Amino acid sequence: MTPAPGLEFHLAAALDKTRSGSKHRPVVYLAAVSGGADSTAMLAGLAAQRRETDLNIHCVHVEHGIRPAEESRGDALAVENLCKKLEVPYSVISIPPGKIAAYASKGGPGIEAAARLFRYKALREERRRIQAGWILTAHTRDDLLETILMRVLRGSGPAGLAPMPQTRGRLLRPLLALTRQDILEYLKLKNIPYRIDSTNEDISLLRNRLRLKLIPVLDEFFPAWRSSLLSLAETQALTAEFLASEVFKLLPWEKEAKKPGKPMSLKLKEADFMAAPQILREEAVFAGVDIFAKKGGRKTRVPRRFAVRRAVGLGSDLGPVRLEKQGAYIYLTQKDRPAAERGFSLLIKETGSYTLKGGVLGTGNRDLNIKAAAPEKNPCNKTAFLAQLPLVFRFHKDSDCIRKNGRKRRLSDILDRDVHSGYTVAVTACDTNGPIGYIVLGEDLLVISGDNAIGNSLFEFKVIFGGKDV
After folding, report:
1. Is the pTM of this model over 0.90?
2. Are strands 167-168 and 134-136 parallel, antiparallel or unpaired?
3. Considering the chain, what is the average pLDDT of its residues?
4. What is d(CA 143, CA 277) in angstroms, rounded to the nearest whole number?
5. Closest Cα partner for 215 from 114, 113, 142?
6. Do residues 395 and 440 touch, judged by C-beta distance below 8 A?
7. β-pairing verdict for 384-388 and 368-373
8. What pLDDT band is residue 55 in, cutting at 50, 70 and 90?
């Protein structure tokens, strides 16, 4: 079978599953297209299907605002041109530059995860707007295996190691049975150009490190790793399904009446909790976090499994939630937002002067002044550093790491104990890739810059503490 009908065959088979029971009702398919190889091939294949069926396609492209404007706009134009050529209606949704970076910097997920959250939110809103039946994404088998590898390295449990399904709600992944090589062969055969994301070579991103560094080693020394890993994932999916059913039967959470101004809380009988096997107690905690997410409470991050395993049965702070014993019950409670999330967030999207009042920082009348400008010849000194726009300044967290001299370094790794104790406030500077510098405030100002990215869009950030003249 040649690559072209192979891809189109898989597309047709996936779409047929969505038409069950609705053959006489028109269904609109919303195709998410970035302009890269996978989504470009998906859109071209959908257009080819349309010639033989009454397929109703609408394309949507999301501009995330986290890459250089010229490159981002080039992607959008490529998608627009392809849609015009294929005669497919399309929409372009632009997320304001800096919005995703600001969200990622406030103690939330990394930049990739934040971009994914905003992208899917935009896709869901567009699906409702045009009344589409399904959202189509171009995930391939390579994406599926890379995701499983990432979760293995992060220590995920059975549910996390299960392979991504072809459908979830109104989301359809019609290319999961195909490899990235299948995609490239299809595009070559059809002579269809596609865009290449410049961040694909950035090995500071975990997925790129796996793709560029680890997977070539696995291919060389463990050529059957793909089928073995997929078999493991399928087994974990069955395990997760069984554990979820057991937790539902044996350890059902009860929702506590929510008090005004207080976070949501769940409870279950301590005797039942302590009598259950360790793995069920762990899964009960994760089931409780899922309840928080579904009941309309504030979005809760998922605690790390190693933390749950260490604390389960003892009562402890698990990061985003707290598990504790009160009387005859075990309580699971959403925590208040950490100080870094309640504190200030200064977003800089363009050059200019910015001032943070001392009251915001807890430094009395001494203000923090920041000036963003084109770099001078030798800009980096004790009060200045280079970075890319957009940039966010926020309160420092102990978990923040910058890359310095080729290594990830926490602030505590850089400052010795005596020096650190002399400062009262620490601020972290974050660009689209995460933390890139520290500003430490006390009697004096200390600016610590990380290894700066090489590029044409670098800006100098001069920082002055306590002075008005920047």
Report:
1. no
2. unpaired
3. 83
4. 34
5. 142
6. no
7. unpaired
8. confident
Cβ-based neighbours of 361, under 8 Å, separated by 6 or more:
344, 368, 425, 427, 441
- Amino acid present at 362: G
CA-CA-CA-CA dihedral for 379, 381, 384, 387, to nearest 10: 60
Nearest to 134 by CA among 206, 44, 215, 58: 58
Domain boundaries, the chain: 3-138+174-201, 252-334, 342-465
Taking 50 as the threshold, does the pLDDT of residue 469 lie above it? Answer: no
Strands 134-136 and 28-32: parallel
The residues pairing with 134 across neighbouring beta strands, listed in sequence order, are 29
User: Could you tell me the CATH superfamily of domain 3-138+174-201?
Assistant: HUPs (3.40.50.620)
- Tokens in use for 240? 């997760």
Phi-psi label, residue 261: left if phi above 0, alpha if psi -120 to 50, beta otherwise? left
Task: Kindly state the percentage of the chain with pLDDT values over 90.
Answer: 45
Say which residue the tokens 């602030």 belong to: 411
